[in-house]
């Protein structure tokens, strides 16, 4: 055996020993991996390149590069996906206590399995996720958390289940904390419970506590949920967008108070013809009860601010920028969609990538301090815009439209979503203007009105079709039962 062969053999043996040591003491196994992912020993600073099947020890720091991703299966059977350009530390992960994961940078998607929740105390967290500014207690859920070390913002979105979130005080931000200390934080009166489809965030210098959970844009939520975290956020300054943005069009005319524009009665009448009066009444009652329960637990969609307690709820329906961990709230004048209970941001606020769910704006880049900077030839311009969205006039070029205003979703709730082009008494006018006025549709041409009516009719037709399918399924099941009974005789 020559010298080179000996070196190769020794290197192979050392790698085997390293991976064996990791496997013996490991708490998380990489089950899916792409790109460059390393595990760093915090004591020696030694880095080990991970591959599928590698184990990572408690205390180690996992880092992913651009276009890289890793999915871990932990010893408690829970799963965590670390996205591109992210870092997390497996701070503590004992077998009989809740684990502590510290997200140092980027995005983390986590799913806690049901069997992990089978313990005696259902009120205690089964897993803790910590950033420098926030703590989250997981009690059975699927969620994504993003941390930006530049502005120290933490953003949380829950896809199922519930997550308790609280802002960390300066006293415990940079110290090692125990499970009991974190449990006190996420169980305090300043913590919030973030449920399915909701966002809550922490923004040091702006918030004194985690924001009251609100619904995000339904389209972005759907796309984010389908992304396991492996897909990287595109450069906002890029001129080409991967695929068209998914749009959820409301049948509510722009600017009209949607709360006074409801076809609920007409839809109920149509459904009643299909499934009967008693069944329709039961469905309507159930929906009304669910809405009432949701309204009691949720802030108003236009947002709210309690100066005395520091509770802040930004307007519902905004986008989350995962690159900067900021919430882009719908501005005053946004259209309200009564079907989802959210406001629809205007087009110049950007949109989201339908594949990744990441926020995109082809004309402006959102900075870490909440300013929209014009882009020129696919690159960020050297000068930014004023807080009202106007150009500073210092060497900037046209960016293809007015910039959204500087982000200030925490300042105050949004005004009623009624455009100046429409009557302020929208709820008192009939649709066809039979009261002598032009009604809520003044200023809308016939073609647009026809399109709105067609969309509303489509909604009714879809509801009827769903009801018919349900009725047919019931009849089919009934027929099968009768057939089986007759055959048995």
Care to describe what's here?
- With 489 residues, this protein is α+β, with helices and mostly antiparallel strands.
- Among the domains are: 187 residues, Jelly Rolls, CATH 2.60.120; 135 residues, no CATH class.
- It has six helices and 26 strands.
- The protein has a 15-stranded mixed β-sheet that branches.
- A hairpin with a 6-residue loop joins strand 8 and strand 9.
- Helix 4 runs parallel beside helix 6.
- It is globular, with a radius of gyration of 27 Å.
- It starts with a helix and ends with a helix.
- About 17% of the residues have low confidence.
Features:
single chain, 489 residues, alpha+beta, Jelly Rolls, 15-stranded mixed beta sheet, 3-stranded antiparallel beta sheet, 6 helices, 24% helix, globular
Care to count the β-strands? 26
The helix count comes to: 6
Apparent shape: globular
The major pleated sheet works out as: 15 strands, mixed
Q: Which architecture of the domain at 25-211 per CATH?
A: Sandwich
Please state roughly what percent of the residues sit in beta strands, choosing from under 5%, 5-15%, 15-25%, 25-35%, 35-45% or over 45%: 25-35%
CATH topology value of the domain at 25-211: Jelly Rolls
Task: Report, as a whole number of angstroms, the end-to-end distance.
Answer: 83 Å
Q: Spans of 5+ residues with little confidence (pLDDT < 50)?
A: 16-22, 236-253, 258-263, 382-400, 416-442, 481-486
User: Fraction of residues in helices?
Assistant: 10-25%
Report the radius of gyration as a whole number of Å. Answer: 27 Å
- Which CATH class of the domain at 25-211 is shown? Mainly Beta
Mean pLDDT: 75
- Determine the oligomeric state from the structure: single chain
Structural class of the helices, strands and pairings?
A: alpha+beta
